[in-house]
Amino acid sequence: MILDIQGVTFSFNSHPVLSDIRFTVPAGSLVAVLGPNGVGKTTLLKCINAILNPRSGIVMVDGAHVSRLTPGDIAARMGYVAQRSETNRMTVFDAILMGRKPHIRWRVGGHDLALVEAMIHRLGLGPLSLRHIDQLSGGELQKVAIARALIQEPRVLLLDEPTSSLDLRNQIEILRLLRQIVTEKNIAAVMTIHDLNTALRFADRFLFLKGGCVLAACDRAEDVTPAIIEETYGIAVTTLDHEGIPVVVPAA
Quick one: 154 exposed, middle or buried, by C-beta within 10 A (0-12, 13-18, 19+)? Predict the structure, then answer.
């Protein structure tokens, strides 16, 4: 397993947020973390990459305890895309190049520049490469944040609602790209997302949170039942099959 979460518990002051979270992510897998607002999905990602320190439990990446790694070592192993990215007077090219920082020792090399150029082309950011990121739309800024995380060449990719600012076409393009990269690079990815149908289409494992605990962990889309969804969200649904893809339909 690339990522191994063992009994992670977290509280804000005395308010419990996560309790005994356990799951693993093998190479080549994209896990969707699902659940209602305020259930701790973002907090879980921040505990995984040590932005927050769990009260108890262990997070391991490739057998290494994350709590024992330096910030630089964590950045070299894990890429993180937050819900909102900060803006400043930096060009798109330079903002993406910042993703190479954990791997640069003395100066930026030709390999680093080539990676940035390739990722800009792959995400269709060429026309924006010299624009300052404080001039971008929310969707454009989100694509830059994803590009920056990807060129870190991480072993684990953490994405907090990566398509929340994107229109339908860009949502599909970005998730197809993420799916391809997870498979091509044989890495592990964990993504929080609200859209069940999008999750079922692109992810291959599913973690349902309720009350700060793991309600269900499903290794296949076929294992995500209406009963699990109803217990998680408190709404009755049915699931249909559309060209081999499960589709969730709320009850009338």
Answer: buried
Residue 242 CB neighbours (<10 A): 9
From its phi and psi, is residue 35 left (phi > 0), alpha (psi between -120 and 50) or beta?
left
Where is 97: in which H helix or E strand?
A: helix 92-97
In tens, the pLDDT along 196-241 reads: 999 999 999 999 999 999 999 999 999 999 999 999 999 999 999 8
Which residues is 8 bridged to in the sheet?
21
3-state secondary structure of 150: helix
Count Cβ atoms below 10 Å from residue 232 Cβ, excluding itself.
19
DSSP helix/strand/coil, 99: helix
pLDDT tens-digit profile of 45-69? 999 999 999 999 999 999 999 999 9
Long-range contacts of 221-224 (CB under 8 A, 24+ apart): 221/245, 221/246, 222/246, 224/200
